Amino acid sequence: MQTNPLDGLHDVIAPAEVAWWPLAPIWWLIISIVCVLLIIGLVQLYKNNQFKKAKKQAIELSRTLADDDVQALHIILKRLTRHYYTEQLAAQPVAQWSQSLSQLSGDTFSYDELMQLYQPDNNHAELGVKLRHAINNFKLKESINV
To answer: 111 near 98, Cβ under 8 Å?
Structure first.
């Protein structure tokens, strides 16, 4: 009788389970990179929110004003310009200010329209709507040559 050659083999011993803790060094590197990227993203989000805060407040303030309150809307635009750009840009003569305002808002403002602000009868609702629209569309990162 012939013997079975498999009878001489020992039973299969299963290897011990590999522990998942402590983590391998590559996992610590991956976790630290993800944490650093998350912190950088949160800081950038916070800075962006703080940068746009003045414009958000100006939009809210302009919503509380009536359309015929063109002086107050114009002052809000000047304050936005001083905050995001320079004081010299906001203090320009009316002719240059109308060009700068047209560039910053995307609307077209003429010299005559802005001169209505300095007339005694400044009850111009259409100019107020245009100024409010300029506040809403005010460009924050436009390059201006002053």
So the answer is: yes
